[in-house]
């Protein structure tokens, strides 16, 4: 779960990391009021995507009237597919230098890693390798002061600024660890006069750990359908096509989409019904697919823990209660396959044996 | 890392099942026994003294070790408690632990894997279907009937997709030596390289099949490794060619972010080192036929 910048800054501030004075505004009046109190401000659109500046989602203003006008303009924007609903109004800072500082997880090393650079302010992907300090944190001992000293040394930070940097990095790691973050990023970490200040905040919390962070705000990035599926415990992603897909297992679902594309069709979604979905869950997944009104539905089940007869029964139940107007193509193999086929047979549906026959048929039907 | 015999597990492996009295635990204990796995103990806190399918149940891993000397464990433990269960198993001396559970917090996974490394133990998963050495030992949740012995070693990120490919191979007349499920999460105990290294050494394995997917850099790193270290032929199938960037396709690891982990990049890296890449799963047996002829 990504946090909005203002939430990330609140989190940082609660760990004692210096952040600019700021307020959240949801309309031009609130923006003007914030500018009235703060003075010269920067208005920052709050969206879960980068490149806000380039898109025109950031404005510098000197008085409340201008703040109101700019706020109105930005609140009307859509940036990278996200509607702007919040603005962060912050005091304009004198920027003397821009650093980059982040802690994230290195999948290959299987440990947290500190990333730091003297070349802050731009996307870290665009910073040449030789300007990036990368320091893996040994999981067994966690962040230790000597690591911070080493990172500071490599950045050339000494004296008062070095001390401030050490304090910020230590606190950033505490936030990262306490909050089960996958990423905490300050870009840029600016030097303003003789102080470091976190001018931006990017925080991603591990979705799987949200259960132990009930106090954190929840940020919804999903579409309504994706949210409905999520509530049912299903992995669902909306796509642009017209063949609705249900498969068991994420890899199998992905392979099914690939096969539909291969045969010239276009999938409407990714839906992983889970490795061991029972009748009830499968029926709910089917209802969800029907609600998207696709041209055809493809169900691809390789029964392992998932039982073919459970899936067939779920389909039969849904079909009894609801008129299904679009063609449904089944592929059913594995655990309790014969029982499943018989159930489908009784309601006039033939299940294929192979993925390729199934995908070809679904593509053909979607074009009629 | 790793054991000398077969790859990771064999007929001598003594298996412990953590969470054996639960629904999933007891069902899969039964399935594993039916496959011929040597399950010697179960662990369920507060349920010591019972039996499940004639397997004695203990309150703690230490008690199980004292009485039954297991050396591998499979965990059917809810995500919130999986770290504790895994650390318990490792502390008790298990050399292989199989973490079936999906949705384990990534910080927990890092701790478990770090501890395992220091204990010289192997973590399979998390979010895996397990590992099976054909006709010797199955520690996992996969369907028994498709794992017949043969010359092909399979390593996969995804469960059902690997079943699909193993079943297709069986249909074509090819059995598998060992099938390893690395798992679908972003932090995993085993990567492709760890498994390729074992298959290269394993005398039963003549051909290696990698089942990967978009996201991360595991396939690219595998390609780099294959170049200098793997002499056996390798076939790869990768899922997610049609996945849009920025969307997590079910698995925590399966997401294209900042242009990294794309399908095309992975195919290019693998083909450059001589790996045959199948476009669709059913092409894997056709390629195997060409190679093993």
* Mean pLDDT reading of chain B: 94
Please indicate the count of domains of chain B: 2
The helix-and-strand class of chain B reads alpha/beta
The total of helices of chain B stands at 9
* Secondary structure: helix percent of chain A: 25-40%
In quaternary terms, these chains amount to: heterodimer
CATH topology of the largest domain in chain A: Rossmann fold
Architecture of the largest domain in chain A in CATH? 3-Layer(aba) Sandwich
* CATH class value of the largest domain in chain A: Alpha Beta
Distance between the termini of chain A: 40 Å
Supply the CATH class of the largest domain in chain B: Alpha Beta
How are the strands ordered across the major sheet of chain B? 3-4-2-1-5-6-7
Q: Could you describe the 3D structure shown?
A:
With 368 residues, chain A is α+β, with helices and mostly antiparallel strands. Chain A has three domains: 21-91, Dna Ligase, domain 1 (2-Layer Sandwich); 97-212, ATP-grasp fold, B domain (D-amino Acid Aminotransferase, Chain A, domain 1, 2-Layer Sandwich), CATH 3.30.470.20; 224-366, Rossmann fold (3-Layer(aba) Sandwich). Helices cover 38% and strands 27% of the residues of chain A. Chain A has twelve helices and 19 strands. In chain A, strands 1, 8, 9, 10, 11, 12 and 13 form a seven-stranded antiparallel beta sheet that branches. In chain A, strand 8 and strand 9 form a beta hairpin. The model of chain A has no long low-confidence stretch (mean pLDDT 93). Chain B folds into two domains: 15-124, NAD(P)-binding Rossmann-like Domain (Rossmann fold, 3-Layer(aba) Sandwich); 142-292, 3-Layer(aba) Sandwich (Rossmann fold). Chain B has helices at 23-35, 61-68, 79-91, 106-118, 159-171, 192-201, 218-229, 263-272, 283-292, and strands at residues 15-18, 39-43, 51-52, 55-58, 72-75, 96-99, 122-124, 130-133, 137-140, 149-156, 176-181, 207-213, 234-239, 276-278. A seven-stranded mixed beta sheet of chain B has the order 3-4-2-1-5-6-7, with helices on both faces. In chain B, strands 9-8-11-10-12-13-14 form a seven-stranded mixed beta sheet, sandwiched between helices. At the A-B interface, helix 8 of A face helix 4 and helix 5 of B.
């Amino acid at each position: 779960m990504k946090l909005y910048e203002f939430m990330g800054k609140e989190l940082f501030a609660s760990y004692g990391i210096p952040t600019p004075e700021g307020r959240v505004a949801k309309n031009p009046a609130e923006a003007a009021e914030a500018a009235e109190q703060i003075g010269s401000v920067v208005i920052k659109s709050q969206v879960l995507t980068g490149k806000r500046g380039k898109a025109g989602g950031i404005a510098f203003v000197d008085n409340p009237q201008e703040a109101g006008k700019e706020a109105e303009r930005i609140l009307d924007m859509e940036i990278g597919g996200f509607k702007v609903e919040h603005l962060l109004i912050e005091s304009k800072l004198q920027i003397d230098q821009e650093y980059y500082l982040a802690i994230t997880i290195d999948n290959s090393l299987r440990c947290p890693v500190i990333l730091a650079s003297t070349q802050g302010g731009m996307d870290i992907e665009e910073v040449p390798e030789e300007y990036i300090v990368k320091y893996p944190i040994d999981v067994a001992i966690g962040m230790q002061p000597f690591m911070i000293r080493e990172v500071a040394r490599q950045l050339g930070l000494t004296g008062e600024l070095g001390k401030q940097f050490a304090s910020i990095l230590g606190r950033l790691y505490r936030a990262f660890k306490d909050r089960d973050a996958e990423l905490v990023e300050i870009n840029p970490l600016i030097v303003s006069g003789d102080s470091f200040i976190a001018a931006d905040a990017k925080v991603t919390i591990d979705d799987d750990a949200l259960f132990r962070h009930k106090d954190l705000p929840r940020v919804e990035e999903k579409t309504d359908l994706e949210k409905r599926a999520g509530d049912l415990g299903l992995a669902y992603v909306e796509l642009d096509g017209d063949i609705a897909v249900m498969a068991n297992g994420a890899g199998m679902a992905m392979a099914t989409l690939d096969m539909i594309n291969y045969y010239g069709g276009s999938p409407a979604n990714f839906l992983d019904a889970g490795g061991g979905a029972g009748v009830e869950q499968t029926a709910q997944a089917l209802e969800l697919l029907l609600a998207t009104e696709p041209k055809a539905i493809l169900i691809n089940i390789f029964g392992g823990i998932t039982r073919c007869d459970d899936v067939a029964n779920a389909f039969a139940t849904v079909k009894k209660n609801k008129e299904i107007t679009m063609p449904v193509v089944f592929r059913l193999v594995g655990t309790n396959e014969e029982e499943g086929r018989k159930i489908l047979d009784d309601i006039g549906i033939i299940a294929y044996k192979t993925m390729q026959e199934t995908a070809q048929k679904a593509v053909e039907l979607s074009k009629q | 890392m790793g054991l000398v015999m077969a790859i990771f597990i064999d007929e001598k492996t003594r298996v412990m099942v953590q969470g054996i009295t639960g629904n999933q635990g007891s069902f899969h204990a039964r399935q594993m026994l039916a496959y011929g796995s040597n399950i010697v103990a179960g662990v369920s806190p507060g349920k010591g003294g019972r039996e499940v399918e004639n397997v004695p149940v203990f309150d703690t891993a230490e008690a199980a070790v004292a009485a039954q000397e297991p050396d591998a464990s499979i965990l059917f433990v809810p995500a919130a408690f999986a770290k504790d269960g895994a650390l318990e198993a490792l502390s008790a001396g298990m050399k292989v632990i199989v973490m079936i559970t999906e949705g384990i917090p990534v910080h927990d996974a890092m701790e478990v894997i770090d501890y395992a490394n220091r204990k010289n133990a192997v973590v399979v998963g998390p979010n895996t279907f397990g590992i099976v050495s054909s006709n010797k030992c199955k520690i996992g949740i996969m369907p028994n009937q498709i794992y017949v012995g043969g010359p092909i070693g399979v390593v996969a990120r995804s469960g059902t997709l690997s079943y699909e490919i193993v079943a297709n191979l069986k249909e074509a007349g090819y059995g598998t030596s060992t099938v390893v499920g690395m798992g679908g999460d972003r932090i995993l105990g085993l990567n492709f390289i760890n498994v390729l290294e074992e298959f290269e050494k394993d005398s039963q394995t003549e051909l290696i099949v990698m089942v990967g997917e978009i996201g991360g850099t595991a396939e690219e790193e595998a390609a780099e490794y294959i170049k200098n270290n793997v002499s056996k032929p390798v076939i790869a199938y990768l899922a997610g060619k049609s996945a849009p960037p920025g969307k997590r396709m079910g698995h925590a690891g399966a997401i294209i972010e900042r242009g990294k982990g794309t399908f095309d990049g992975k195919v290019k890296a693998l083909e450059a080192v001589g790996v045959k890449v199948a476009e669709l799963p059913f092409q894997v047996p056709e390629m195997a036929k060409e190679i093993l002829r």
